[in-house]
C-alpha cells in the first residue's frame, strides 16, 4: 500500500468518526434495538457453538413434559375432589346456591308434595277436621270443581313452594349440608347412614326436615290435622350414575393425592424444561401442553354433562339434575379456566422474552411507548433512575416471583384472578421500565455543543 493510499484511508476513518460524532447520542429506542440485536447475536453464536447432538436429553425432556401434561388434568380433578371432601366451607359454598335455584326449588317442591300425598289417607284425614276448623280449611283449599284430594294437593304444593322459596329454606339447606358434610366421604365410599347417602347408584339427600316445616305451615294454614301426618322421609337425588360404584376407588385415590399430584406434575414439567437443550422453547411447549390437556378436561366436562342428563331417570327432574351438576363442578370449571389462562400467559411471556424478530419488535415498542409517556410527562427520576437501572433485572424477577407466589397462595384462583394477577404483573413491570430512563440527562448537565444556539468548537 502506498503512502497516498494510507493517507486516503486515514482521511476516510476520520470522516466516519466525524459523521458519528455529528449524529449525536442514540435515542432510547435505538439503544433498546441495539441491545436486542446484540442479544440475538449472542444467542446465535451460543447456538452455533453448542453441540448439535443431544438426542438423549431431548428424549427425556419430551417424556417428562408429556407425563406432566397427562398428570395436569388429574391434578386438577384431585384438587377438586380434595376440596369437596376435605373442606367443609368449600362444600357448603358449592351446594348453597342450589337452595335459590328455581329448577332445584321446583324439584324439591314436587318431591315433598308427592311424598306427603303418597303417605296420607286424604279422606280419613279430612274427616278428622273439627267442625270449627272446616270454614278455615275450605277457605285454604278454595272452591275447586274437582275432588277434595286435588284441593289438598294444591294446598300442600302451594305451602311447600312458599317455604322452598323462603330464606328459611336457604338456612335449612345450608345447615343441613354443613351438618352432613362428614358423611359425603362415606357416601362416595358407599358406607354410612347420614343424611347424604349412596343408595344403589344414587347420591341422595333426605328431605325429612323440609317435610316437617311444610307440616307446620299446613297447620298454620288451617289444616290442623296435618300435625297427625306421620314422619315422612323422602330423598332428593343429588347425583345418579351406574358408574358411581366403580368410580369410588378412583375418587378416593384422587382425594388422597389432591395435595401431591399437582406438585408432581409441576416438578416433572420443570425437570423437562431444565433438561431440554432449548429451554425457552421447552417452557413454551410445556405451558401450552398443560393448557391444552386441562382445556380438554374442560371440554370433557361439558360433553359429559349432556350424556349425564340423558341418562337421568324419568322420575328425576332433568333441569334440577343439570343445576346440581353445574354446582358440583363449578369450582372444577374455575380451576380449569385458571390453569388454561396461566399456561397461555406463561407461554406468551416466554415467547415475548425470546430473541425472535416479532418478540424483539414487541419489546422495542413496549420500551419506546413507556419512554414516550415518560418524556411527555416531564418526570425526572433523580437518583432513583440509576439505582433502578442497575438492579432492573433483579427487580423484574422479584415481581415475577411475587406474582407466582400470590397465585400459589390464592385460595382456589379462578381464570379472572389469574388474568388480574397477570395484569398487575404487567403494571409493575411498566413502573420499573418507567423508572429506568437510560437516556435521561442529569439536571445539571450543560447543553451539548451545537445545541441551543451555542457554536461548535473547531
In terms of topology, how is this protein built?
Layout: H1 3-23, H2 28-49, H3 55-86, H4 88-95, H5 102-118, H6 122-127, H7 134-141, H8 148-164, H9 167-179, H10 182-189, E1 196-199, E2 202-206, H11 208-220, E3 235-240, H12 244-256, H13 261-275, H14 279-310, H15 318-328, H16 330-352, H17 357-377, H18 384-390, H19 392-409, H20 415-434
Antiparallel strand pairs: 1-2, 2-3
Helix pairs in contact: 2-17, 3-4, 3-12, 3-13, 3-14, 3-16, 5-8, 5-15, 8-11, 13-14, 14-16, 16-20, 19-20
Explain what you see.
The chain is mainly alpha-helical. 71% of the residues lie in helices and 3% in strands. It has helices spanning 3-23, 28-49, 55-86, 88-95, 102-118, 122-127, 134-141, 148-164, 167-179, 182-189, 208-220, 244-256, 261-275, 279-310, 318-328, 330-352, 357-377, 384-390, 392-409, 415-434, and strands at residues 196-199, 202-206, 235-240. It has a 3-stranded antiparallel β-sheet with strand order 1-2-3. Helix 3 packs across helix 12 (244-256), helix 13 packs antiparallel against helix 14 (279-310) and helix 14 (279-310) packs antiparallel against helix 16. The longest helix is centred in the N-terminal third of the chain and has 32 residues, at 55-86. It is elongated and about 105 Å long. 27% of the residues are buried. Residues 189-195 and 441-458 have low confidence and may be disordered.
Amino acid at each position: 500500500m502506498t503512502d497516498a493510499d494510507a493517507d486516503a484511508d486515514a482521511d476516510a476513518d476520520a470522516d466516519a468518526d466525524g459523521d458519528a460524532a455529528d449524529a449525536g447520542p442514540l435515542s432510547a429506542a435505538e439503544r433498546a434495538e441495539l441491545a436486542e440485536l446484540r442479544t440475538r447475536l449472542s444467542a446465535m453464536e451460543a447456538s452455533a457453538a453448542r453441540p448439535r447432538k443431544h438426542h438423549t436429553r431431548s428424549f427425556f425432556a419430551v417424556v417428562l413434559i408429556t407425563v406432566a401434561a397427562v398428570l395436569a388434568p388429574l391434578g386438577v380433578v384431585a384438587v377438586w375432589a380434595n376440596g369437596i371432601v376435605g373442606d367443609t366451607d368449600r362444600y357448603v359454598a358449592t351446594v348453597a346456591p342450589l337452595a335459590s335455584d328455581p329448577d332445584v326449588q321446583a324439584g324439591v317442591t314436587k318431591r315433598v308434595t308427592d311424598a306427603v300425598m303418597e303417605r296420607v289417607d286424604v279422606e280419613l284425614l279430612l274427616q278428622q277436621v273439627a267442625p270449627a276448623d272446616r270454614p278455615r280449611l275450605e277457605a285454604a283449599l278454595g272452591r275447586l270443581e274437582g275432588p277434595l284430594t286435588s284441593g289438598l294437593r294444591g294446598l300442600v304444593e302451594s305451602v311447600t313452594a312458599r317455604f322452598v322459596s323462603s330464606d328459611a329454606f336457604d338456612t335449612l339447606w345450608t345447615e343441613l349440608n354443613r351438618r352432613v358434610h362428614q358423611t359425603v366421604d362415606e357416601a362416595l365410599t358407599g358406607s354410612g347412614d347420614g343424611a347424604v347417602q349412596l343408595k344403589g347408584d344414587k347420591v341422595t339427600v333426605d328431605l325429612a326436615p323440609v317435610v316437617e316445616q311444610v307440616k307446620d305451615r299446613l297447620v298454620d294454614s288451617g289444616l290442623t290435622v296435618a300435625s297427625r301426618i306421620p314422619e315422612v322421609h323422602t330423598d332428593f337425588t343429588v347425583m345418579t350414575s351406574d358408574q358411581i360404584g366403580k368410580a369410588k376407588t378412583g375418587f378416593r385415590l384422587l382425594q388422597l393425592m389432591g395435595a401431591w399430584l399437582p406438585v408432581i406434575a409441576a416438578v416433572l414439567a420443570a425437570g423437562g424444561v431444565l433438561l431440554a437443550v432449548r429451554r425457552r422453547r421447552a417452557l413454551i411447549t410445556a405451558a401450552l401442553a398443560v393448557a391444552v390437556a386441562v382445556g380438554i378436561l374442560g371440554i370433557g366436562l361439558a360433553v359429559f354433562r349432556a350424556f349425564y342428563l340423558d341418562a337421568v331417570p324419568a322420575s328425576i327432574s332433568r333441569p334440577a339434575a343439570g343445576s346440581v351438576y353445574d354446582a358440583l363442578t363449578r369450582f372444577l370449571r374455575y380451576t380449569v379456566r385458571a390453569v388454561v389462562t396461566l399456561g397461555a400467559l406463561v407461554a406468551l411471556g416466554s415467547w415475548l422474552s425470546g430473541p425472535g424478530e416479532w418478540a424483539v419488535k414487541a419489546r422495542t415498542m413496549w420500551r419506546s411507548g413507556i419512554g414516550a409517556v415518560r418524556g411527555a410527562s416531564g418526570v425526572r427520576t433523580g437518583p432513583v433512575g440509576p439505582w433502578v437501572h442497575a438492579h432492573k433485572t433483579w427487580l423484574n424477577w422479584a415481581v415475577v416471583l411475587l406474582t407466582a407466589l400470590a397465585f400459589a397462595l390464592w385460595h382456589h384462583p379462578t381464570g379472572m384472578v389469574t388474568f388480574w394477577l397477570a395484569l398487575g404483573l404487567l403494571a409493575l413491570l411498566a413502573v420499573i421500565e418507567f423508572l429506568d430512563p437510560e437516556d435521561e440527562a442529569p439536571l445539571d448537565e450543560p447543553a451539548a455543543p451545537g445545541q441551543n444556539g451555542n457554536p461548535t468548537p473547531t
